[in-house]
């Protein structure tokens, strides 16, 4: 197979420069729409981080039969159209697991307390459905089902980071496009190892991640011969 990676990020502070765009919610929404363009009409549920979560985007996705559950941040998210009363922290002390809800149609805004206030916006889960977060030290903490679902799917990212973050290429060039390029290469190698572990070849050789990376570099540089058995 032949793969190509294209990275195009314009440096500079102009109106279309990276510095001017990287913190704008419109850019994050555009990326989300691009990634989900083939999901329309399939009743998928997508989980989003604060920079993507917004009422306007979720309503637009709902029209395409794509449903959402996202973590909301008053600092990072586009909070246009959301009730200000839900964006302010309660002055009265709250117990872990307590939450407030505001609804509009199928959309729910949940403010859940667990050693701090966490806000979730969703049209994929009913706010009256109950869930639970299990902590090693604290035991079970009650929460709406949307919170439980978000935590469960977020764990996929955490597991990936815990397992493979030490294998990311640590080279830090000055140019942003170079940083993105090496980041993409790191992800490609880690994903290649995951695919290798799913293949029949893994049952023959059983390389560790470090051994797999070393052999891959040698093969790319032509430093050793390869055979079908490897």
UniProtKB/TrEMBL annotation:
GO terms for molecular function: transposase activity. It comes from the Eukaryota. It comes from Erpornis zantholeuca. The gene is Pgbd5. GO terms for cellular component: nucleus. InterPro entries: PGBD (IPR029526), PGBD5 (IPR042423). Pfam families: DDE_Tnp_1_7. This is PGBD5 protein. Residues 22-193 form the PiggyBac transposable element-derived protein domain. GO terms for biological process: non-replicative DNA transposition.
